[in-house]
C-alpha cells in the first residue's frame, strides 16, 4: 500500500511526512522525493507471535511517498509533482490550518478546493488527449473499444463540471480505466494541519464537504517523533494525545482503501497479509504465492477471536471453531488461514 502526500506549497507536507515516518531530513536533502516504509501496528500480531514463538514475525507494511522536484515554482501546484503520485494507491492531501509569522490567515477549505481542482484538470487533459487519439483511430478505420470510449466520455462530463472522479465508484474503480491512474479517482484522506494547541476540525464554510478528513498537529507530532518514550510522555499528557499520528493515519488509510488483514502462523513465521475486503480465499492465496492459488484445495480457517477464546489451536479444533472453506469464501479481517494446496 503506497500513499502519496500532496498539498499546496506551505501546507506543511514535509513536516507531516516526518511526523508520520520519523524520517527527518537535514537541510541538504530538501527538495528531494522521499519515501518512508512503516510497519502497520497490530496488537493481534504481537499476541500471535507470543503464542507461536516463531523465528520471524512480519507485520504488514505501508509506504508514504513525498514527491518533490528541485527548482520547481512554489506559487502553485506543480503538474510534474502531481504526475509523480499517479502510481500511488491513495492520496493524503495536507491542508494548512495554521497561522504564524509570514503566513496569511489560513483558508483551509479554499486551499483544499484549489489543489483538488488541479487534480481534476490534470485528469481532464489525459481524457481529452485519449479521446482525440481514439477519434483519430476511428477515422483511420481502426477498431475502438466501445466500453472504454463510453467510460471516458462519462469521465469527460464529470471533469468538465469540476467533479473529481472519486465521487463516482463506477468510474473510479472501472477496470478498463485502471491504466490511466486518474488522480482525482484515487481515494483521498484530507489532513488539516493545525496549530499545536488546536485539535479541532476547521469550521466548514460549505455544508457539502464530505471528504474523509482528520486533524493532525504536524509540527507538534514532528517534534514528538524525535523524542524518546520518556521525553514524549509529558507532551502526550499536556496535549491530550492518546495515539500517535502514525497509528491514527495508518488506521484511516486502511479504512480509506477498504483493506483488512489475515494471518498465517507457525513456528517459522507469524505474518500479516493485506487484502481488500470481500477478497475470496482463492485470491487471498495468490497474495502469498501464485502456486498456492494454482493448486488450491481448501482453506483451513479460524478467526483470531475464536483462537483467543479457545486458548490453543488444538482446543479450537475440539470446540469446532476451526473450519474448512472453499475457493469462494470471503476472507474476514483477523482470519488465521492455513491453505491446503497441491502443485
Automatic annotation (TrEMBL):
Residue span(s) of domain TGS: 258-341
Q: Cofactor(s) for this protein? A: Mg(2+)
This protein's name: GTP binding domain-containing protein
Q: Which UniProt keywords apply?
A: ATP-binding, Metal-binding, Nucleotide-binding
**Organism of origin:** Desulfonema magnum
One MF annotation (Gene Ontology) recorded for this entry: ATP binding
One GO cellular component assignment for this chain's record is: cytoplasm
Amino acid at each position: 500500500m503506497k500513499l502519496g502526500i500532496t498539498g499546496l506549497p506551505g501546507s506543511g507536507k514535509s513536516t507531516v511526512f516526518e511526523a508520520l515516518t520519523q524520517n527527518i531530513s537535514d537541510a541538504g536533502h530538501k527538495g528531494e522525493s522521499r519515501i518512508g516504509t512503516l510497519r502497520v501496528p497490530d496488537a493481534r500480531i504481537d499476541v500471535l507471535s507470543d503464542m507461536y514463538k516463531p523465528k520471524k514475525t512480519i507485520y504488514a507494511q505501508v509506504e508514504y511517498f513525498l514527491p518533490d522536484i528541485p527548482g520547481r515554482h512554489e506559487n502553485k501546484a506543480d503538474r510534474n509533482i502531481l504526475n509523480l503520485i499517479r502510481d500511488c494507491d491513495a492520496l493524503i492531501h495536507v491542508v494548512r490550518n495554521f497561522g504564524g509569522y509570514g503566513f496569511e490567515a489560513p483558508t483551509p477549505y479554499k486551499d483544499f478546493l484549489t489543489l483538488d481542482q488541479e487534480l481534476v484538470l490534470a485528469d481532464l487533459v489525459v481524457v481529452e488527449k485519449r479521446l482525440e487519439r481514439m477519434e483519430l483511430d476511428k477515422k483511420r478505420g481502426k477498431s475502438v473499444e466501445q466500453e472504454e470510449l463510453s467510460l471516458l466520455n462519462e469521465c469527460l462530463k464529470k471533469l468538465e463540471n469540476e467533479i473529481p472522479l472519486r465521487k463516482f465508484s463506477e468510474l473510479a474503480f472501472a477496470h478498463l480505466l485502471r491504466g490511466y491512474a486518474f488522480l482525482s479517482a484515487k481515494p483521498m484522506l484530507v489532513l488539516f494541519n493545525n496549530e499545536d494547541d488546536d485539535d479541532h476540525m476547521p469550521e466548514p464554510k460549505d455544508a457539502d464537504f464530505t471528504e474523509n478528513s482528520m486533524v493532525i498537529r504536524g509540527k507538534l507530532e514532528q517534534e514528538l517523533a524525535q523524542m524518546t518514550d520518556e521525553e514524549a510522555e509529558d507532551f502526550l499528557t499536556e496535549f491530550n494525545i492518546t495515539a500517535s499520528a502514525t497509528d491514527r493515519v495508518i488506521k484511516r488509510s486502511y479504512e480509506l482503501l477498504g483493506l483488512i488483514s489475515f494471518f498465517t502462523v507457525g513456528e517459522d513465521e507469524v505474518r500479516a497479509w493485506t487484502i481488500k475486503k470481500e477478497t475470496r480465499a482463492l485470491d487471498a492465496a495468490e497474495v502469498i504465492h501464485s502456486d498456492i492459488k494454482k493448486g488450491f484445495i481448501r482453506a483451513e480457517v479460524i478467526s483470531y477471536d475464536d483462537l483467543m477464546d479457545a486458548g490453543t489451536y488444538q482446543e479450537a479444533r475440539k470446540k469446532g471453531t476451526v473450519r474448512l472453506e472453499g475457493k469462494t469464501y470471503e476472507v474476514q479481517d483477523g482470519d488465521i488461514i492455513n491453505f491446503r494446496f497441491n502443485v
